[in-house]
Protein 1
Amino acid sequence: MTNLRSKRNIFIFLVLLLVGIPLTVFLALKQQDIRSRAGGGGVQFEMSPQIATKAPNETFSIDVNLNSGVFSPAGLDTTITIDKDIVDFVSFTPASSFDTIINNSYSASSGILRITAVDVSNTPPTGTVKVGTLTLHAKNVGTATVTAQNDPQVVGLGQSTALPIGTNLNGSYTIAVPTPTPIPTATPIPTNTPVPTVPPLTPTPTLLPTDTPTSTPIPTATPTPTPIPTATPIPTATPTPTIIPTGTPIPTQIPTNTPAPTNTPVPTTIPTDTPTPTPASQFVGDANGDGCTGILDFGIWLTAFQQAPLPNTNPDLNGDGSINILDFAQWYNAMHDPIVVKC
Ligand SMILES: [Ca+2]
Ligand SMILES: [Ca+2]
């Protein structure tokens, strides 16, 4: 009895172990996945694929994505460092996520790619946004890293400052000479085994057929007469009782309500309108000072960002003393703020 109980306990323990271990591993991986997706609470750049092995002289492409998490990115200004000793830069093709590409330049001497892109449309992208496709050429054997720098500026809808940057998911690409597949040696063809000669067969004597006896005829059965069924009696119909209608009830008269006397309206004095102050937007988008925010203001910011400020304009929309993508964020969000006058 004790032995039986002990066996049963071992069986229960093993079942719990078999179910428990995969469940624990699954939950741990799920937690890790959630943390990975969150990207440390901010936006993050990610190379896809992150790891690959390529042969020398091979040209290959990787996607540069921006995982924007809960934010809606409206623009970015970032640099990506490419391991120029191992791979050569071929091209960077921007995706259509951002409609205005301001910078797409690569420096062969430093191995730095700069991408500046903004979206002027009314529908900013969300979630994981493809920034573009980076094409590289494997030059030397080794491991090439493709690293998004930690100083990118990403601006988003409703955000007057740069979005927080999480942990970037950089790329690592191994360039290696592929090991040749060994050619299998030919299998020797076996020589034919000599077929033994068969001794001549002794003829089997044929059996003579014996006479088949003729069958005895079976006597035919005499048919028995079928009995004629007697008629089934038809039941007589049961009479249905007639229902006598009850008298229609006479409706009782509902007394009419006596109308209550209406109150004589007391004339109210109309208060004079207190002017409500117009709330000011937290965003500034008017770069040319004409009292409204429009595409001309974007052009003024863009000119100042790429070249030099135009006279009698204020492209430093956030007033921090420099012209960068944060000023674009001011203009972009002013365009999306209903209280800002548009032109
Ligand atoms: Ca303006
Ligand atoms: Ca500024």
Protein 2
Amino acid sequence: MKKKSYLSGVALLCLILSGCAETVPTTIPETTPAISTENIAKEEEPQTTIGNIIDLDGDGVPDEPVTKNVIPLTEPETTLPEETQPTQTEPVTTEPREARTQTPTSSNEETNPVVDLPTAPPTEPDTPEEETQPATTAVPANAVSISAEVSGTHYIGSSLGAADFTIKVTMDDGSTLTNPPGWYAAPLELTGETTVITVGYKDITGTVTVTATEKPTTPATEPETSEQAQSGAYTRIVREDGAILYDIGASVTVCVDAGHQAQGNSAKEPNAPGSEVLKTAVATGTSGVATGIAESVMNLNVALKLRDELLSRGYNVLMVRESQDVNITNITRALMGNTATICVHIHGNGVDNQSVHGTLCAVPTTANPYTTAICGDCTMLGLSIVNGICGKCGSQNRGLWGTDEMTTLNWATVPTTIIELGFMTNPDEDVLMNTESYQVLMAAGIVDGIDAYFAAN
Ligand SMILES: [Zn+2]
């Protein structure tokens, strides 16, 4: 019953963008709507779901459109060559807004709220220029008080980022400003269990006390090749299949797959058990348009933080990889995941349009014959996680993408989702996602979602 109402909410959240988790299929179902001016015009209507054709993998093959959470698995009719460049269209913006808990009151809805904030205080907040400026220009009212909240889980020795803060400034006319341009905070380093941080805006200041905890013990940097290595609170086991188990004696084990690897593997493998559709064993992945960082590197950096966060919240963790120098096919990754309770595949997204940003999760549809037993749970897991990330990070919530083409989903027998953290082709999001403090936030948001998933089950 609970599941039913949950699923009906899912339909509203389902969006049209696809992920770059794997090589997208070279076939497009006959239900794919043609790109036309009519379709583009319809995108203005928020209630309408239209098929976009977007190549999120950057491999030159258009991804298929998604309408709600259901993609009919009809016989493919058209076959596109690998090199075909699809027409790009603007993204649809029907994503829910309620998950953006840290949205500032400033004007631009489309701007990611965490991008524009300053990360370091000005060295001299009370400059003479500031004092001589009449208070009649940008802000007619005078600021009278400032308060701040700091969200997220923080570790001693780490630093805060702008995304961690929600700053509220109260003006003498009773109005308030949230995260107004020009706010600052210092210090940002968390050196102990509590750190008193000064926040300021123009000539007013306030303080906020941030608590931090000891960072969970991390294993030796080199993967163990021996059978077991006792370290801290968990037992680290490198299994015969190469997966690395962190066992704290919990009843739930979360498999974490950092998508891709240093070198792709162009061998072909069936995208589902018994399927004749062959897909690349491991795609190369995308890369950061601003940072130049490979998606596989970013995925691994987030996966390692996710591992630590999961352990600190009481889950066993099964890591598909902890190194770039591996060769693990998508089927193998799925089979590793099937030995855990649930599985998450960590990816970054890519699309030709650099303005596109936001977070989504890919899940199988109800029409998928290979995932009938887990489809509902995959949907609940994906929805919980995308809401968890967006709630923690303030990224644009693109909801769920239903797809029946992904090898890592089709081979799954336990609840599984592909997490597309954000778009590495959006310069701001690329920089953000490759920032240490933001990666900690993303990991915390994923575990928020996993906590919510198990709380509801
Ligand atoms: Zn990917």
Protein 3
Amino acid sequence: MILYGIPVSTYTAKVRMLLDLKGIVYEMQPPPGGYSTPEYMKIAPLGTIPALKDGDFVISESSVISNYVDEKFPDVPMRPGTAQDRAKQQFMAIYHDLWLEPHLRRTFGHVDPATRVQSELDGHLDKFQDRIDKMEELFEPGPFMCGDQISVADLAFPATFSLADIFLPVFGREVRYGPKVSAWRETIYQNPVVKAVTDSSKQATLDWMNSGGG
Ligand SMILES: N[C@@H](CCC(=O)N[C@@H](CS)C(=O)NCC(=O)O)C(=O)O
């Protein structure tokens, strides 16, 4: 199995955690030609990472990949429980992918003060914080995000939060986490796989930032 991705990619980290927790052997490869290139789009039509190649089958979108992998390799279930439990896990994963992380991503284009549009940047920084605050209403640490077992919901957030912690100070901001998210973070970072992948993604990002971010 090939996982197209790179170490700094938070969405790739999410899938790496899932594969590692399940003990699945895979090779991580950078997207041929780079992401969003015509060459890579022949493999993954949207040009995004991560994408997973399993034999002749290729699929992208981190939450879709996660569901595919969990269905194909059910031995260590990462969507445990009832249909309702799985729907809640999916809701949290999608909340990350569609509602939270995109605001962090949209700040990347404002790193250079010469081209920064401060009002746009502030809008995304404020929205990112709002969406973290909103999480206090969305789950009850049990101690995991959706109950007493780790699930796909838990894997969506760690690398994104780690990135936000090191990246937002570039804009003079610090992320504030409410009591539920803070308690959940303490639990999830105790998992050695989650910690190892999050730390490696964080280190890759720090190396990238220290090299000038080019
Ligand atoms: N919704 C996608 C987001 C993936 C994503 O945005 N990946 C970034 C790198 S971390 C990317 O490929 N960006 C290239 C692009 O947007 O064209 C997922 O969950 O896989």
